[in-house]
Specification:
Blueprint (H helix, E strand, L loop, with lengths): L1 H35 L3 E10 L4 E13 L3 E3 L5 H7 L2 H21 L6 E5 L9 H12 L7 E6 L7 H11 L6 E6 L16 E4 L1 H6 L6 H12 L3 E4 L5 H9 L4 E2 L10 H9 L1
Helix pairs in contact: 4-5
The structure holds ligand C2E and magnesium ion (3 copies).
One magnesium ion (MG) binds next to loops.
């Protein structure tokens, strides 16, 4: 009996594996089609100062209008695009959408807004990315520093010298580098002062802990950032209590549902004017 139970578990596992692989293959095909078919839309979430709430920039977060599955969240396809390598093309497509939006907002009189775009650390393994970002700034006549990048530490560390070279190649455009999800990776702190980054984003899992008590980890991140002269954005602020604690600790910038969820471009513009 134990044996047959084992067998049916194996069969169950195989079926689950097969449908997972099928799902991935479908997404891979659909992604290709989706880029050509312009199915991706950027939503924008404000990043604001904690002292007196003022929007300083928007983070662009991609959504996929899938012809069959409806609106799909990035967690459902970014990891797959990473594993197939399509992330390079997808991120470039997204960067173009972001640049177009910035230039569109400028035409509507919003001149001083900045945007951060999430990109895969894979871009930091090839010098081509420098040229790509320069061309983008050029084509859309982006003001210095208006488009910035968010990256996670994984993938950067293996290639620290090359990553540093690439970041140094785009910082003359005013492009600032935000280190996303900080504290959740396998960070050896040693690389932090070697990488030419500008901003740390405290992961929302740490901010969540602030709902009940002060967090020694957040204190440590803030003091680390201070000594390295980095700015800090706390992500995932959902309650006034979290906001107050972060502000009291000297965190300058925040982001989260308390102020706004990510929203389509029209709503983001209205939010800015409100
Ligand atoms: P991330 O860059 O760390 O983005 C923060 C995520 O937290 C976003 O989820 C955002 O909607 C969500 N969030 C913001 N405020 C709150 C809050 O107060 N509470 C909670 N619970 N969540 C909050 P989203 O949009 O689903 O994006 C998930 C991840 O997908 C992003 O994490 C980023 O790593 C990736 N991603 C999103 N857009 C892109 C993109 O255009 N390119 C690439 N390569 N990755 C992207
Ligand atoms: Mg991000
Ligand atoms: Mg994050
Ligand atoms: Mg994240």
């Amino acid at each position: 009996e134990a044996k047959s139970a084992g067998r049916s578990q194996v069969r169950y596992f195989n079926n689950a594996m097969r449908s997972k692989l099928k799902h991935q293959a479908d997404i891979e095909n659909d992604l290709q089609h989706g880029i050509l078919n312009d199915e991706f839309e950027l939503f924008y979430q404000p990043i604001f100062t904690l002292n007196q709430p003022k929007v300083v920039s928007f983070e662009a977060l991609v959504r996929w209008h899938h012809p069959k599955n409806g609106l799909v969240a990035p967690d459902q396809f970014i990891p797959i695009a990473e594993s197939t390598g399509q992330i390079i093309e997808l991120d470039r497509h997204i960067l173009t959408l972001a640049a177009k939006q910035l230039s569109n907002w400028r035409q509507q009189g919003v001149s001083d807004i900045k945007m951060t775009v999430n990109v895969s650390s894979r871009h930091f393994a090839s010098l081509e990315f420098i040229e790509y970002i320069h061309a983008l700034y050029d084509e859309y006549k982006l003001p210095s520093g208006s488009l910035c990048l968010e990256i996670t530490e994984s993938g950067l560390i293996e290639n620290l010298n090359l990553a540093t070279k690439i970041i140094n190649g785009i910082t003359p455009l005013g492009v600032q580098l935000y280190l996303d999800d900080f504290g959740t990776g396998y960070s050896a702190l040693g690389y932090l002062h070697q990488l030419p980054i500008h901003v740390l984003k405290i992961d929302k899992s740490f901010v969540e802990q602030l709902s009940t008590k002060d967090s020694p980890l957040i204190d440590a991140i803030l003091s680390l950032a201070k000594s390295l002269q980095l700015k800090v954005v706390a992500e995932g602020i959902e309650t006034p209590k979290q906001w107050a604690r972060l502000k009291r600790k000297g965190c300058q910038l925040g982001q989260g549902y308390l102020v706004s969820r990510p929203m389509p471009s029209q709503k983001a513009l209205a939010f800015l004017h409100a």
